[in-house]
Specification:
By secondary structure, this protein is α+β, with helices and mostly antiparallel strands. The chain has 16 helices and 19 strands.
């Protein structure tokens, strides 16, 4: 790979000088993302504004063997947008336009720098719904969501980002521009290339336009809060609801540590003495919503809930949902370094997995708050640590390695929505198997033979 500084003359012919950042103080904000204890200053940052500019930058980078790391808002939690040594950060935050809302086909065409909240609000204003709702949706960008295949609170009923991507314009590592997908509900022509690029974490191409699928907005919604003295009872409630069968749009849980931190932070009246709480939400036709809410309350009580509260107003529902969304921020106030992890197990294994993590925290003498999406088995064990305490960080690493091993043993996966990035690349073979990793390597080399796009992420080639 070439020394980037020796090629600034060529780079300046692609973009205006004011959109090429090289001063040390300008590069600092681009040296880290939302992942704790990971940082690396890039050699430079370019602020592209058009597909043609992205194409020219990638063509130049491919010819000069310059590593490129694409970045949006930098909210990722797996180190996916951490620059590599000597890399050029390609920032797409200026790709912020909503290009088309097509009501007849229920699609929305946007640029990758549009925030997830803006996507939701644009659909909502038209009486439609964009379901994926990662916790960072107010600031995360849709390009990053697609690159990491983000999930969210509504994932149980509505699925994750890949389920709402109908197509996209993408720039390949050699600078070629292509469009993949269309507005058709059915399309089985050839290999499904959409799924190759979605979740590829910026290692195969750069999205410049994204076509999203929208749904009609549900006519009604009800929110319930159930309180438990035992995590096992909360897990049994989830199983009972799914077996009924009811598929709520939200089935979220918080453990005692997280409840106390969230209540300190939000003061919405969460029961501080509870071992666990379930936040349940159903949406759809008003009559169905009313019936499902009553059934879920009955099932929760039958499974041992100490109390079940039904939100009486939309404002109360919003406060409860906001309390859940603030879990990470609330926990982050407790310790200097907050490491939010992400593992998923089959629903039947969730209660046992939570118990394992709680016992492991005691054994390693480390504080862990646990919350997540109980309906789909996605856990977020959150380590409350101090990166200056070397011994504590070592114990955290040992503890997480045990969590990964137990997750895999229970038939789970090392990430349900955050991605692999740098933070989990060493665990990928353990999770998916060595042969599957080698298949991924072959795909990477096929699309990016000079290995310029996000090198070192997910796996080493």
């Amino acid at each position: 790979m070439t020394d980037l500084t020796s090629n600034f003359g060529q780079l300046a012919s692609i973009l205006p000088a004011e959109r090429i950042l090289t001063a040390a103080e300008d590069l600092i904000p681009y040296s880290f993302d939302g992942t704790a204890a990971l940082s690396q200053r890039p050699a430079a940052v370019v602020l592209a504004e058009t597909t043609e500019e992205v194409s020219r930058v990638l063509r130049w980078a491919n010819e000069t063997r310059t590593p490129i790391v694409t970045r949006g808002s930098g909210t990722g939690l797996a180190g996916g947008s951490i620059p590599s040594v000597g890399s050029l950060v390609l920032c797409l935050s200026r790709f912020g336009r909503v290009l088309e809302l097509d009501r007849r086909n229920l699609t929305l065409l946007v640029e990758p720098g549009v925030t997830t909240q803006t996507v939701f609000d644009t659909a909502d204003a038209a009486g439609l719904l964009y379901p994926p709702d990662p916790g960072s949706m107010k600031i995360s960008t849709i390009g990053g969501n697609v690159a990491s295949n983000s999930g969210g609170l509504r994932g149980l009923k509505y699925g994750v980002t890949k389920d709402y991507v109908m197509g996209f314009e993408i720039v390949l590592p050699n600078g070629d521009v292509t469009w993949i997908g269309n507005k058709c509900v059915k399309d089985v022509a050839g290999y499904s290339l959409r799924e190759v690029f979605i979740g590829s974490e910026g290692t195969l191409g750069v999205f410049t336009k994204i076509l999203l699928r929208l749904l009609p907005k549900p006519a009604a919604k009800r929110t319930l809060l159930a309180v438990y003295a035992r995590m096992e009872d909360a897990a049994e409630t989830v199983s009972a609801i799914i077996a009924h069968p009811i598929i709520p749009c939200t089935l979220e849980f918080l453990d005692r540590t997280t409840i106390q931190c969230v209540e300190d932070y939000t003061k919405v009246g969460l029961p501080r003495e509870a071992e666990a709480i379930l936040l349940m939400e159903t949406d759809g036709h008003p009559a169905v919503v009313t019936e499902e809410a009553e059934i879920m309350a009955q099932l929760a009580r039958k499974q041992g809930a100490l109390d079940v509260r039904l939100a009486k107003t939309a404002e109360e529902s919003l406060r409860l949902a906001t309390a859940r969304r603030s879990a990470f921020a609330a926990l982050a106030r407790v310790a200097p370094t907050t490491v939010l992890e992400d593992v998923t197990v089959p629903r039947s294994e969730l209660a046992g997995m939570v118990k394992f993590i709680q016992e492991l925290a005691k054994r390693h003498r480390i504080r862990i708050g646990i919350f997540g999406h109980m309906g789909d088995g996605n856990l977020h064990p959150t380590f409350l640590t101090n990166e200056k305490d070397i011994d504590e960080m070592h114990r955290m690493e040992l503890a997480f390695a045990e969590i990964v091993a137990e997750t895999v043993r229970r038939g789970g996966t090392i990430t349900g929505e955050h991605g692999v990035g740098l933070a989990k690349k060493k665990f990928l073979p353990q999770s998916v198997g060595g042969l599957n990793v080698e298949i991924m390597r072959k795909l990477k080399r096929l699309f990016d033979p000079n290995l310029i796009l996000n090198p070192g992420k997910m796996f080493d080639c």
